[in-house]
Design a protein that fits this description.
about 350 residues; alpha/beta; globular; binds 5'-deoxyadenosine; binds FE2/S2 (inorganic) cluster
Length: about 350
């Protein structure tokens, strides 16, 4: 069964990506599998038309689990005395990039907690990787001063991922100590100004998040024209202040992915690792609801399980690079072509 008005509402959002807040809330607020199926099919169709029916790959290297931040949801927050901390050496980072390249993947995502790495040290790693391979480099190391972002861009970094987490000031403040949404937004603006292909996104289901806030954040991401948008369920980590909160709802997460596809159209949307780390692997479901990126983990085998943002993270026991073999199966299950290209922004010409 679909609710009265559902078809019209879906049509309005599909026709006009500048969707009304109440239409987004109406589509998020749904219990019917039939409505979900129609929404997901519409999103997959928009993905195929705007991006091609393909699934692209990014090789993920988690190079440090140190973090100076205190995000209440994250297992790496600095107050977690039980977290195992490591930092790869520059040589190990360059070696990881070789593994990604040898697997035929042309993008590496260098991700870490806010570990205070010296800007020049990371710039040197970027230059070395760029010197060896013609690959896109994506950074994801949190909030830093403009001059660091600029230094890394000059060294050859192409892209940057920084999830906004939420644009709601009160929710943002309740999840982060001593940080403001204004600073977050300023970092995102700086990244776009510097010419980075910029990715953002948020979790679905942290305590205090409402459907209204999700709708507002979906609209925000579309208006800012981010090149990449990551959405995953909140998964409570036992060593954080949110240990006893509920896991984010799977269907609501998938509806959010689908609505982002309808409103941000030609953005790259990962089927996130968090979606693969619930009671089973739901990444195919995300691909069927409009996602089109998968990020296999290329961190060295002995550090993978130490990068524990949330518990139950998938693929932590596999050998490095094993996930690459799994990718063809995911793409096939979702009816997508497996695409090994760099897959630059579809929104702007790279600079
Ligand atoms: N569950 C799900 N996602 C999380 N993240 C951080 N902690 C969790 C958690 N407990 C997400 C945040 C962050 C990204 C790297 O991982 O959105 O930006
Ligand atoms: Fe990691 Fe399948 S994606 S083993």
């Amino acid at each position: 069964m679909t609710r009265p008005g559902f078809t019209d509402c879906l049509e309005r959002v599909r026709e006009n990506p500048d969707a009304a807040q109440e239409d987004l809330v109406f589509l998020l607020n749904n219990e019917s599998p039939k409505e979900d199926a129609l929404l997901f099919a519409a999103a997959a169709d928009v993905r195929d038309r705007y991006c091609g029916a393909r699934m692209v790959l990014r090789g993920l290297v988690e190079f440090s689990s140190y973090c100076g931040n205190t995000c209440h949801y994250c297992g790496l927050n600095r107050a977690n005395g039980k977290a195992e901390r490591y930092r790869l050496t520059p040589d190990e980072m360059v070696e990881s990039a070789r593994l990604v390249w040898d697997a035929g993947i042309q993008t590496i995502v260098l991700q870490a907690g806010e570990d205070g790495i010296a800007a020049q040290e990371l710039a040197d790693v970027i230059s070395r990787i760029k010197g060896e391979h013609d690959m896109a480099i994506t950074l994801s190391v949190g909030e830093r001063p403009r001059e660091d972002y600029a230094l890394w861009k000059d060294a050859g970094a192409d892209r940057y991922l920084l999830r906004v987490e939420t644009t709601d000031p009160a929710l943002y403040a309740s999840l982060h100590d001593g940080r403001t949404v204004e600073t977050r937004l300023a970092c995102l603006d700086t990244l776009q100004e510097l010419g980075y292909q910029t990715g953002s996104g948020f979790m679905v289901g942290p305590p205090g998040q409402t459907l209204d806030i999700i709708a507002q954040d979906i609209r925000f991401l579309a208006q800012r024209e981010y090149d990449m948008i990551g959405i995953g369920p909140f998964i409570p980590h036992p060593e954080t202040p949110l240990a006893h909160a509920k896991t984010g709802d799977l269907r609501l997460t998938l509806r959010t992915v689908a609505l982002i596809r309808l409103t941000s159209r030609n953005a790259w949307l990962p089927a996130t690792t968090a979606l693969g780390s619930l009671d089973q692997d739901y990444r195919v479901d995300a691909l069927r609801a409009g996602a089109n990126v998968v990020m296999p983990n290329f961190s060295p085998a002995d550090v993978k399980k130490k990068y524990e943002i949330y518990p139950g993270k998938r693929c932590v026991t596999e050998q490095t690079g094993a996930c690459a073999g799994c990718m063809a199966g995911l793409a096939m299950a979702a009816g997508l072509e497996l695409d090994y290209s760099r897959a630059d922004s579809l929104k702007r010409v790279p600079v």
